[in-house]
Design brief:
It is a single chain. The protein is 15% helix and 36% strand. The chain has 338 residues and is α+β, with helices and mostly antiparallel strands. Strand 8 and strand 9 form a beta hairpin.
């Protein structure tokens, strides 16, 4: 009787171990990005130190010069493509560059002749939208696969715009200094001036993003605050999220991180600040001025971009495969232990 009990326990343990191994293997095969590290990419325009720097997205520790000055001398915007590569603007050469999304190695000039390229986002249709930070300004729509020019989007009195984001409605929102302009995310057609000029004291706004609450957040160089908050449906001013008296000086790019907090490129002071994502309360200087190597140190952060593979929700089909796989493993375990 004792021998049978020991054998049963061993068999149950082996079955449980097989199930654990099976679950782990299945997750690694189907959901490989869940365990991927989060990195923060920072555009840096600081004299001869202009480059794209890569930092640990959890600690702020410097990791590498991801795109050196020799490749990109004026980065104002970047985006990860569906192919996993990194697309970045070079305003000096009026081009959009494509580099390896893992190593940063230069691949090719994705598009040339793009007037003063700045912020960029891939739209719901898979095309790349690049803000032309000129006077008057515009937005260039490029084929997301080939880089071929599709259209030049104008309207809303664009004048030296810079940042761009995709709203929950799938439309495009462009930071236009004292206003925010909206374009149709499918056709590229001008829709409206979503945030009226000067609303809430908006002045010199360089970037805009959508928060976890669905509202719109814009950097501002005005006296009412460094980050202003607007209703994500109506564009109505909701208040200063980061108010006057903060350490923000000429804030540029902003992004909500995987921890739910807000990160702001503090261009005037040369650092990256972190604020509570719910209250706007200052947390810390996430990346200090001068971080990085001597020949490429942070001094003028422009854009901020997290590489957060777990941000997207798995497709229902993927979840179904995982569910059926786990169910099969559990049934196999039960059969083996009977």
């Amino acid at each position: 009787m004792t021998k049978v009990w020991k054998h049963s326990t061993k068999r149950t343990t082996l079955s449980a171990n097989r199930v654990r191994v099976g679950v782990c293997c299945m997750c690694l095969l189907i959901l490989p990005n869940v365990c991927s590290a989060t990195d923060l990419y920072v555009g840096n325009f600081f004299g001869n130190d202009s480059d794209v720097l890569k930092f640990n997205g959890n600690t702020g520790a410097f990791q590498s010069v991801f795109v050196p000055f020799s490749v990109d001398s004026f980065p104002l915007g970047a985006a990860f493509g569906a192919d996993g590569n990194f697309y970045v603007s070079n305003s000096n050469t009026e081009a959009v560059l494509r580099v390896n999304g893992t190593t940063g190695a230069f691949l090719n000039t994705f598009a040339s002749g793009v007037d003063d390229p700045a912020g960029m986002k891939f739209g719901p249709n898979g095309n790349l939208y690049v803000v032309n930070s000129s006077s008057p300004g515009s937005v260039t729509q490029l084929n997301g696969t080939t880089g071929a020019l599709i259209s030049q989007m104008t309207g809303g009195s664009l004048n030296d715009p810079e940042g761009i984001t995709v709203g929950r409605d799938g439309n495009l929102y462009v930071a236009n200094g004292n206003s925010v302009v909206r374009f149709n995310g499918t056709t590229g057609a001008f829709m409206d001036v979503f945030v009226a000029a000067g609303s809430g004291g908006l002045s010199g706004g360089r970037d805009v993003t959508v928060g976890p609450d669905g509202n719109l957040y814009a950097t501002s160089n005005g006296s009412t605050g460094g980050v202003l908050k607007y209703n994500g449906t109506t564009g109505a001013f909701l208040g200063a999220f980061v108010g006057p008296g903060s350490d923000l000086s000429l804030p540029r790019g902003l992004v909500f991180g995987p921890d739910g907090n807000l990160y702001v490129a503090n261009y005037g002071a040369g650092d990256v600040l972190r604020f509570d994502g719910a209250t706007g309360t200052f947390i810390d200087t996430f990346i200090a001025n001068g971080s990085g190597p001597a020949d490429g140190m942070l001094g003028g952060p422009t854009f901020l971009l997290f590489n957060e593979p777990v941000s997207s929700i798995p497709e229902p089909a993927t979840l179904g495969i995982v569910g059926f796989g786990l169910l099969g493993l559990l049934l196999w375990k039960r059969k083996r232990t009977l």
